[in-house]
Specification:
Layout: H1 4-14, H2 19-23, H3 31-50, H4 62-74, H5 80-89, E1 91-96, E2 102-107, E3 114-117, E4 127-131, E5 134-140, E6 145-152, E7 156-164, E8 171-175, E9 178-184, E10 190-195, E11 202-206, E12 217-220, E13 225-231, E14 237-243, E15 253-254, E16 261-270, E17 273-280, E18 289-297, E19 306-314, E20 319-322, E21 327-333, E22 339-345, E23 348-356, E24 367-370, E25 375-381, E26 386-393, E27 398-405
Antiparallel strand pairs: 1-2, 2-3, 4-5, 5-6, 6-7, 8-9, 9-10, 10-11, 12-13, 13-14, 14-15, 16-17, 17-18, 18-19, 20-21, 21-22, 22-23, 24-25, 25-26, 26-27
Length: about 400
C-alpha cells in the first residue's frame, strides 16, 4: 500500500520519463498510474493555493464605508442607486504641472488619488466642465493657442486646437450641448470661442479693452443671458451682458463709480441678483487686499450697482459659489498663506464672517466646485508642490488632504 507521500515522490521522480521507458522499469504499478498520481498532485496543489484566506466578499475600505454613511445621512431621500452613482462620479480636478503639462487628479471609490499626465504646454489655469458624459478642459498654451482636451467614455482622450490669438486666462460654461469659452485676445478685445453640437469650433470678437493678462469670469443666467466680467487695461471692471443669440458684436458696460481693482474678478448669481467680487487696490505693494463686493439686479446698462467691503487680506483672485438660501461663499489665499472663506447673504450684504480652513499653506488662487451648494470641494496648489484638497459641508464638517506631488513650488 502506497501512502500519499510515496505517491508524491514516485510521481515527482518518474512523470518526466516517456511512457515506453516507464514500461521497461520494474514497478509495482502501471505507468498510467504514475501519471495519474502526478495529475492528482497538481490538482491538490492548485486547490490549496486558490483557497481564499477568508470567506465571502472582501470588506469595504473604511473610508468608503464612512463616505457612504455620510451621503446617506445627509441625503435622506436618496436611494442606494443614487448613492452608488455619486460614488462612481468621484472628484476630479485639473492643474498645470511643474513640467508644464495638464495633470488630472482623480479620487474615487477604487483609488485614493490617481494622477494622469495628459501632456500639452499649459500656460493658464485650466477650465473644466462636463457636457453630457464628456469632460472638456480648456487652456491657453505657451504659443497663445486655445486648446480643448476632451475625454469621453466612447472615444477616450482627444486634443483639439481651437486656434491662435488667446491671451490671459480662460473662463466659460456649457449650455444645451454647446461649449463656450472667453479669453482676452491678441487684438486687445474680448474673444468669445464656442462650439455647437456637430460643428467645428469658431469665435466672435466682443468690443472692449480687457487686460491682456486678465482672466474673465463668465456664467449663463437662468434666463439665458451671457454675463462676463473682466479687468480692463486701467484696472477697472468691465461688464458684458448679452442674450445667448446675438446679431452684433456686443460692447461692455463700465461700472459706475467703480473703484480701482487689484487682480481679476469673480462673479456669481444668487436668484436674480448678480454679485461680483474683486480685491481693491488698497494699501501698498503686493500684500493682502480687502475683498470688495458689487451687487445689483440686472436691468442692463441702467442697473443700479451697490457695493460694500467684505474686508480681509486676500493675496490672489477670489472664487465664489452660492446656494439657493441666498448665501454666498468666497474663497481666496490670505496673507498668512492659508485658504480663507468669506460668507455672507445676498439680502444682508454687510454681515460677513471669516473662517480659515485647516491644513497646509498654499500659493495661487484656489478653485471651488459645488454640487448642491451645501458641499464644497476646494483645490489649491500647496507651497510644498502638492495638490491639496478640502471638503466642506454646510453643517460644519471640514476635511483636508494632500493629493500628492507634481505641481511645483513657489
Amino acid at each position: 500500500m502506497f501512502t500519499n507521500a510515496d505517491r508524491a515522490v514516485l510521481a515527482g521522480l518518474l512523470h518526466r520519463l516517456p511512457v515506453k521507458q516507464l514500461q521497461q522499469l520494474l514497478l509495482l504499478v502501471r505507468p498510467d498510474t504514475i501519471l495519474r498520481w502526478h495529475r492528482d498532485l497538481l490538482k491538490r496543489r492548485h486547490a490549496a493555493t486558490c483557497v481564499p484566506r477568508r470567506r465571502g466578499r472582501p470588506p469595504t475600505v473604511r473610508s468608503i464605508r464612512t463616505l457612504v454613511l455620510r451621503l446617506a445621512s445627509e441625503n435622506a431621500s436618496w436611494g442606494y442607486r443614487r448613492v452608488h452613482g455619486e460614488l462612481a462620479n468621484g472628484y476630479t480636478n485639473f492643474q498645470r504641472g511643474a513640467n508644464g503639462h495638464l495633470l488630472r487628479y482623480t479620487a474615487g471609490p477604487t483609488v485614493i488619488v490617481a494622477t494622469d499626465d495628459w501632456g500639452g504646454s499649459v500656460a493658464s489655469q485650466p477650465l473644466a466642465y462636463q457636457v453630457g458624459p464628456d469632460i472638456d478642459v480648456f487652456f491657453r498654451s505657451t504659443d497663445n493657442h486655445l486648446w480643448n482636451y476632451r475625454w469621453s467614455p466612447t472615444n477616450g482622450l482627444t486634443k483639439t486646437d481651437w486656434g491662435a490669438g488667446a491671451t490671459g486666462g480662460v473662463s466659460g460654461f456649457a449650455y444645451n450641448g454647446e461649449r463656450h469659452v472667453f479669453t482676452p485676445a491678441a487684438d486687445g478685445k474680448l474673444r468669445h470661442w464656442f462650439q455647437k453640437p456637430g460643428q467645428a469650433p469658431a469665435f466672435e470678437t466682443w468690443n472692449g479693452a480687457p487686460a491682456a493678462d486678465g482672466t474673465p469670469s463668465a456664467f449663463l443666467t437662468t434666463d439665458n443671458r451671457f454675463e462676463v466680467f473682466v479687468r480692463d487695461t486701467t484696472n477697472h471692471l468691465l461688464w458684458w451682458e448679452q442674450p445667448r443669440t446675438m446679431s452684433t458684436a456686443p460692447a461692455p458696460v463700465a461700472f459706475a463709480n467703480a473703484q480701482t481693482i487689484y487682480g481679476d474678478p469673480t462673479a456669481v448669481a444668487v436668484a436674480n441678483q448678480i454679485n461680483v467680487f474683486a480685491r481693491l487696490a488698497a494699501g501698498t505693494g503686493n500684500g493682502g487686499k480687502p475683498i470688495h463686493r458689487w451687487y445689483f439686479t440686472s436691468t442692463g446698462p441702467s442697473s443700479t450697482i451697490s457695493n460694500v467691503s467684505w474686508g480681509g487680506d486676500a493675496l490672489d483672485q477670489p472664487t465664489a459659489v452660492s446656494w439657493s438660501t441666498n448665501e454666498i461663499w468666497v474663497y481666496a489665499e490670505s496673507l498668512d498663506g492659508h485658504v480663507w472663506r468669506w460668507n455672507g447673504r445676498s439680502g444682508n450684504p454687510t454681515t460677513v464672517t471669516f473662517t480659515q480652513l485647516p491644513g497646509a499653506t498654499i500659493f495661487g488662487p484656489p478653485s471651488v466646485h459645488t454640487d448642491t451648494g451645501a458641499q464644497h470641494y476646494i483645490f489649491a496648489n500647496g507651497q510644498n508642490g502638492n495638490m491639496h484638497f478640502w471638503y466642506w459641508h454646510y453643517a460644519g464638517q471640514s476635511v483636508w488632504g494632500d493629493w500628492g506631488a507634481g505641481l511645483g513650488t513657489p
